[in-house]
Structures are given as structure tokens and as C-alpha cells.
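We store sequence with structure; for instance:
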Amino acid sequence: MSSHAPIPDARDPDPALLAGGSPLPDLRAPFRERQPRPRPGTTWLPEDPAAVEDAPLRVRVSRWMQRLHDTLTEFFEDRDGGGRFQEDAWLRPGGGGGVSRVLTDGHTFEKAGVNRFAGGGAIPSEVAARLGARDLPDGPVEFYATGVSIVCHPRSPMIPIVHMNVRYFELTAEDGSRVDYWFGGGLDLTPTHPFPEDAVHFHRTLKRICDRHHPEFYPRGKSWCDRYFVNTHRDNEMRGIGGIFFDNLRGGGDEELSTEALFAFVRDVGLAMRPAYGPLVERHRDDEWGTRERDFQLYRRGRYVEFNLVHDRGTRFGLQTNARIESVLMSLPPLARWGYCVDFDEGTWEHRAQEMLMPADWADGVPAHLLPPTR
């Protein structure tokens, strides 16, 4: 007998999430609806030819990341309902730079960051090896990286924290020849109030997206995410309820998928924010909350900060490669709290929220032990 309580139609989101609203949009709907407001130095075309035009992979990925940056900026501004992003363009010593957009003190989001980076420079071979590089030459290597990274800390404790990243990494030898390359990324959720049905919707959406490309992408990505976002110094407590995480995906070597097939998968992950997270914002936007809910939100944010500063590979890479520190630390919340030996009584909703941090097969439904009511 399954240990999970069934939820109608395992292939679709929980209908309760959509009560009173419209159906979830198709994954590529942002490209078929209204165009985002133009921003300096950017262009926008509904069919987004940047991903398929006749140009080197590095160029096509970079142009697509630029458009994704605009799409997700528009998404969060729309969901906030009043806030606007502050934009800062910056240069990295040694080559490249980025554009950081941060929304603070919004109506819905206390802080949301949407960052884009493109560029590179010299990189020590030992650093490249730690990142997963293969077949490195004896001489020096140059790296090129581009990607979009998002972290959103909602104002309401009833709306979960969300993080997303998609990236492309390339290494070249002294003569300019490509030595290695790979894609990476992921999308994960950190609840600050226990709504197990949110986790079910989030994971089912990601599974549906992954299954379009390869049947092993979701189970592998979920397992990697469950292992990666862990505060090992806190008795292996997970940062949230997971999602998917992947890295070092190379064409031809990953289940015989081509580079173009992997690029298509990364594009779908980049666009997954709208169907995976958007309904959760709408569902909980007007939920009531008070001091007790806020205190627990700040407690969970503290654990979020600990992971990002102690364990996160992206933070370490940014610090090792002279990236702009304000952008590297964009993921940190504006407020957090650390208590001493904090514990929660069994039967309380805080204890239930902590129970949700244990790995679970969320795509199968709400685990039975999370069904009893709390106080």
C-alpha cells in the first residue's frame, strides 16, 4: 500500500491550487503573450530565434539568457503588483560582467533578485577540475560562463522562497579551441509555512517538464537536489523541499542526448518559474499571517543563509573569480533570525514544516504522515 495520500490526476497540478483561477499556462506561454517592456541594450522577439540561429553555441546561449533575464524580470514585477527592479550593470576584473536586477520592499516580495552574467577569463586548472571539468590540458585555460540566477524572498510567510538558476560553462585552451563545456541549473522551493500541496504541485510541474526531454531527468535531478541543498552542519537538514538540480550536462555523453537537446531542456527549465511557482504566489498572496508566522519565516531564512554562505558552490565560485560581491550575495534575505537551540513541539504547524524538509516522493502526492491536522 502506498504511503502517500492520492491527489486527483497525478499528471496535473492539484486542482485546489487553481480554485477560482485560470488553468496553468503552457510552458512557453510567456513567448506567446504580451512582450516585456524593452530594456536598454536588449531586444525581444516572440519566437526567440536566439536559441536556434546559425551562430556558435556560446553566442546563442548568451543571447537566449539575455531574453530569459527580461522574461523573468517581467514575471516577478507582474506578480509583485507594484514593485520595480533596480538595475545595475557591472564589469568583472579580468573579463565579462553582468546585469543585476533587485526588487526590494515590494507589495508581494520583500526582496527578489534576477541576475545575469556573461564573461570569463583565466581560471586555475584545479578550480576548473573542482567544477567538474574533464580532459584539461597541461597549460592555462580560460573559462566562459553565462547564466541567469533568481532568488525570491516573499514578504508573506505563507508564500515559499524560490530559487532558480540556469547556466552554461565553457573552457578553452590557449589557442582558443574548446576543451570542455556543460550546462547546469535547477529550480527549488523553500517553504516557510507547511502547505504540502504546494510541494506536490511544484514537483509535479517539474516532473512533467523533465519528462518531455528524458524519463531520467526528473528522478536524477530530484535526487541530486535532495543531496545538494543540505546543511550538513545542521544534522543534514535540507534547505527546503527540493526540486531539481543538475550540472555537467554535456552533449553526446548524457544518455546520448545531443547538445541541442540539452539546450532545449535548459530552456524549458528556465521558463518553468511561471507554471511551477506562479500559482503558489496567487494562492497564498492574501493569506492572513501574524507574528508567529513571521518569526518562523525569519528562522527558516536563517537556515537559508547558512547554506548559501557555507555550502553553495555558486557563492564560492563567485568569490573565487572576482565577481561583483553585491551580486554574489544577492540571494541573502533582507532580514533573518537565529535563536539558540530552537525546537518546536510535536503537533504544531512549525513542527510540521520541519517534517516537510525530509526527502519525499512529492510527485506521488502528500505523504501520509503530513496529513493529520496541526495546531
The chain is about 35% helix and 20% strand. The domain at 4-370 is CATH 3.40.1500.10 (oxygen-dependent coproporphyrinogen oxidase). The chain has one domain: 4-370. Confidence is low (pLDDT under 50) at residues 1-47.
